[in-house]
Amino acid sequence: MTPPKSILSTPGASSDSIETNLSEDPPQRKMTKSKKSSQVNKNSDDYRRRRERNNLAVKKSRNKSKIQTQQTLDRVQKLKAENEMLEVKIKILSKELSFLKDLFLAHAGNAHGGNLAAVNFKTLSDETEAGTKSPTPEV
Asked: With a threshold of 0.90, does the pTM exceed it?
């Protein structure tokens, strides 16, 4: 599909000359840097300087990657330890909640003629104390 002649035409030029210019092959491109690099003298000072700079950049990049990996592993270990601590805390708080519920139910039952002897306070308090000195959460 060709564009309309009004777009192709320029003042003073015929549409035939423009169409022939469009159909011609583009000029040959110059050799790119990548093709020139294969012709570099590997014994030259410039080449050695570039290789040395590249080697230093690679070492720096690898060291940075190793440091980031180690930091990530350290953080994972820290979070695992914190998770275990929080799971222990959950168990302790669950036992404390259960104890307080039983205590409340016993008190509510006693107020309405229930018997407090049904609650084993010794077992409940031992379970709570076994987990930690202070069963209340730290803020």
From this structure: no
Alpha-carbon 106 to chain mean position: 51
Per-position DSSP letters for 9-24, written without gaps between them: --TT--HHHHHHHHHS
Helix (H, G, I), strand (E, B) or coil at 26: coil
Backbone angles phi, psi at 31, to 5 degrees: -65, 135
Distance CA 39, CA 96 (A): 79
101-117: per-residue pLDDT in tens?
A: 999 998 888 776 655 55
Quick one: which of 114, 95, 93 has its CA closest to 105? 114
- CA–centroid distance for 38 within its chain: 40
Residue 29 backbone class (left: φ over 0; alpha: ψ -120 to 50; beta: rest) = beta
Q: DSSP class of residue 35?
A: H
- Cα dihedral 120, 122, 123, 128 in deg (nearest 10): 120
